[in-house]
């Protein structure tokens, strides 16, 4: 995949895979569901390739942790982020400027 290239995949939210074109126009199947109130899991299968990903997004307050698992090739990668302008960050910023 070229640097800064993005790919968008369809996800079936009814436990049925949806197909869309992936890298090189090869088909990719995707489905996803909420495992709990704050955990969303997506399965992405590069049907014409070897890769099969499980992507788990866990939301906690103003933070998200994303775990990408690929047992077929790359292994696991985990990263996280925080919502910009969240009430917790704004409160912390106010406390830092009033000190």
What report would you give on this structure?
By secondary structure, this protein is mainly β. It is built from one helix and six strands. It has a six-stranded antiparallel β-sheet with strand order 1-2-3-4-5-6, with no helix packed on it. The mean pLDDT is 88.
Shape: elongated
Q: What separation lies between the terminal Cα atoms?
A: 48 Å
Q: Helical residue percent?
A: 10-25%
Q: Write the element-wise H/E pattern from the N-terminal end onward.
A: EEEEEEH
Q: Helix/strand/pairing class, anyone?
A: mainly beta
Could you give the count of β-strands? 6
What's the number of helices? 1
The residue-averaged pLDDT reads 88
**Residue windows where pLDDT falls under 50 for at least 5 positions:** none
Brief synopsis:
This protein is mostly beta strands. The chain is built from one helix and six strands; from the N terminus they run ββββββα.
List the helices and strands and how they pair.
Layout: E1 18-21, E2 27-36, E3 39-45, E4 52-60, E5 63-70, E6 75-82, H1 87-97
Q: Could you name the key traits of this structure?
A:
about 10% helix, mainly beta, about 100 residues, six-stranded antiparallel β-sheet, 1 helix, elongated
């Amino acid at each position: 995949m070229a640097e800064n290239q993005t790919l968008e995949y369809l996800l079936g939210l009814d436990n049925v895979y949806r197909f869309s074109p992936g890298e090189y126009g090869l088909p990719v199947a995707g489905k996803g569901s909420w495992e709990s109130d704050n955990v969303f899991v997506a399965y992405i299968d590069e049907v014409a390739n070897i890769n099969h990903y499980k992507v788990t997004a866990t939301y906690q307050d103003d933070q998200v942790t994303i775990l990408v698992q690929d047992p077929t090739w790359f292994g696991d990668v985990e990263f996280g982020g925080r919502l910009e302008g969240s009430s917790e960050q704004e409160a912390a910023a106010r406390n830092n400027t009033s000190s």
